[in-house]
């Protein structure tokens, strides 16, 4: 086996171990209060509010029915609301509520603290290198 292939195999194994740990930890941070999909959708709405279900499904590259389900769950929690468009009454838009913004900000603080602690043992130079590598992989 070539050295490069050995490195790829070790990288794959390590990457998935780290990814699983991050996923588990983020789920713990969210505390069954909100799902990862709900958190991501709230962030999307906080950046571009309002959006239609179709726009959201295109942004996330998932089905309209999946977004509808996520929006239903967020609406039950009072984190988003649906309203008819002022320009076209046939169109329903999804808005993040003040409670949704507050929830997102609280979760963001927890995630930021987690990542600061997780990456605390890396130097600034190592963090910059890691970021550069991730950007290159995008």
UniProtKB/TrEMBL annotation:
Gene Ontology biological process terms in this record: response to stress
Pfam families xref list: MarR
Molecular function per GO: DNA binding; DNA-binding transcription factor activity
SMART domains: HTH_MARR
Keywords: DNA-binding
Gene3D superfamilies in the cross-refs: Winged helix-like DNA-binding domain superfamily/Winged helix DNA-binding domain (1.10.10.10)
Domain HTH marR-type: 8-138
Keyword DNA-binding: yes
TM region positions: none
Superkingdom to which the source organism belongs: Bacteria
UniProt KW Iron-sulfur keyword: no
PANTHER family: TRANSCRIPTIONAL REGULATOR, MARR FAMILY
Protein name listed in UniProt: DNA-binding transcriptional regulator, MarR family
């Amino acid at each position: 086996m070539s050295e490069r292939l050995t490195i790829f195999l070790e990288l794959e194994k390590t990457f998935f171990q780290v990814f699983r740990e991050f996923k588990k930890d983020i789920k713990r941070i969210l505390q069954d209060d909100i799902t990862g999909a709900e958190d991501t959708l709230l962030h999307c709405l906080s950046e571009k509010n309002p959006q239609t279900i179709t726009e959201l499904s295109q942004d996330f590259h998932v089905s309209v029915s999946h977004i509808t389900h996520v929006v239903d769950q967020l609406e039950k929690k009072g984190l988003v609301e649906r309203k008819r468009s002022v320009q076209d009454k046939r169109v329903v838009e999804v808005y993040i509520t003040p409670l949704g913004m507050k929830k997102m900000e609280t979760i963001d603080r927890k995630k930021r603290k987690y990542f600061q602690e997780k990456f605390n043992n890396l130097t600034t130079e190592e963090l910059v290198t890691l970021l550069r590598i991730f950007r290159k992989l995008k």
